[in-house]
Every structure is written in structure tokens, then in C-alpha cells.
Amino acid sequence: MNVTIKLSGHVLFPSLDAVPDLKGHVAVIRKIKAKGHSPFIVVGGGEPARHLIRAARANGADESTCDQVGISVANINALIFARALGGDAFQYIPKNTDELDKALSSGKIVVMGGLQPGQSTNAVSCVLAEKSGSTLLVSTTAVDGVYSGDPKKDPSAKKFSEIKAKDVARILDSLGTRAGEYDLLDPVALRMIQRSKILTKVIDGKDPKNILRAIEGEDIGTTIVP
After folding, report:
1. What is the mean pLDDT of the chain?
2. What is the pLDDT of residues 135-159, one digit of tens each?
3. How far apart are CA 93 and CA 114, in angstroms?
4. Is-above-0.85 flag for pTM?
5. Which residues contact 188 (CB under 8 A, 6 or more apart)?
6. Calpha distance 126→185 (Å, rounded)
7. 167-188 b/e with 16+ CB inside 10 Å = b?
């Protein structure tokens, strides 16, 4: 099975102070491949991106420039993850769709970061899912699924085991969409999920084994139905 995996930058790169430990996620990606699946990876910007976006915004940068900052950081994070995968991964990070086509033709694990302003790494994962013919998109986050509100702020927020993409869009309507504020999914990603009928699972990415559990059909996280 071709599967695209969005690795949360907030999970992999949660701090500016600590060196990230990627070994667990790298091991799971290799195990997924060893089981006969073809994984394709997108890595988010995490706290390094948020920090530099805040710095850019505080110094007068417009939102497009802030997006470019986030893209650059996500691409650096993707490069670090590709290096951690070693020979299993294509070692150049695609910056546009032409480069992505070349990477996909290599037969190796493709690792991506950002592409263009106004497009989160969640949307990039949808582009990669479309281009790679993935039948499943696994999106890892710092929480264990999709909730009716922000579970960190609203203890009464309800977790969904399954939800339609259009209903996720309604939940996100009240949230910001500035650069660095795409914790879950953004409107562009949701439209792509709907148009390409991409089955999507949102899971807690802190335990990398959850990625394999989601791929193998275990009932974890939230399933987003196109």
C-alpha cells in the first residue's frame, strides 16, 4: 500500500533547546517499508518554524514572507529526517512538483517539507498523497485525534472516532490560518482530501508505533471521511 505520512513538526521538533531524537520514528518508517508498504513523508516546521515566524512577524514581515520562513524551516527539518533515514530515502528535498516527480521516480522514500506560501505542510501531504497514489494519509499531531474544540483549552471538547471532511472544516472555521497556525488541518488540505477522496487518519504522533497501528487498521485516532 502507498501511504503518505505527515510527521508533526511539533512532535519531532518541539523545542529550540533540545536535540530532537528521531530514532523511534525512523525505525517505524523502516518497519513500514519492510512490511511491503511504500511510505512517503512530509515533515512539519515545529517550534523552530514558529519561533522564526514570530521573529519575522514582529519585525514587520507580511504573511507571505512568514510563510516562506516556515517553508524554509520545514525543508531543513525534512532534510534532517531524510539524512536520518539514510539510504532508504531520496536525499534531495523536492521544492516544487517537477522535483517531486523526479524524486518519486527514484523508488526511494520521498521526504518533503514545504512548497509554496499559503499552503501548510498538511496541504503538502495531500499533494504528495495525490502524486504518489497513496490510498491512505496518516497525519500525526500532538493530540490523539480530531476534537469538537481545542482539547488543551476546552476540557469538554468531544473526540470524534470518525468525521466527514466538511464537518472538520466547520470546526476549523473559527481558528486562525496565519503562518505557523496549522496544528491540525487547514482548508486547502481539507478541500484536497475531498476532491481526491483521500482516506485520512489523524493520530497522536508522540508514540511512533501509532503510525504502524493506523496503517494496519487499528481503531486509533480519528478517521476523516472525504
Report:
1. 90
2. 999 999 888 888 887 777 778 888 8
3. 9
4. yes
5. 118, 119, 120, 123, 126
6. 10
7. ebbebbeeeeeebbebbbbbeb
The span from the CA of 75 to the CA of 85, in Å, is 15
SS3 state of residue 188:
helix
- Cβ atoms < 10 Å from Cβ of 113: 29
For residue 49, CA distances in Å to 25, 62, 114, 164 come to 20, 15, 11, 30
Q: Yes or no: say if 95 and 207 are a contact pair by the CB < 8 Å rule.
A: no
Task: Take residue 176 and report the three cell numbers written for it.
Answer: 486562525
- Measure the CA–CA gap between 174 and 195, rounded to whole angstroms: 23
CB 186 within 8 A of CB 114: no
Query: Which residue type does 18 have?
Result: A
Q: Give the cell for residue 220.
A: 486509533
Cell of 124: 503538502
> Can you list the residues of the chain whose pLDDT is less than 50?
177-182
So what's the pLDDT on residue 183?
Answer: 58
pLDDT tens profile 184-224: 677 888 888 888 888 999 999 999 999 999 999 999 999 99
Give CA separation, 160 vs 38, 77, 163, 224, in Å: 28, 30, 6, 9
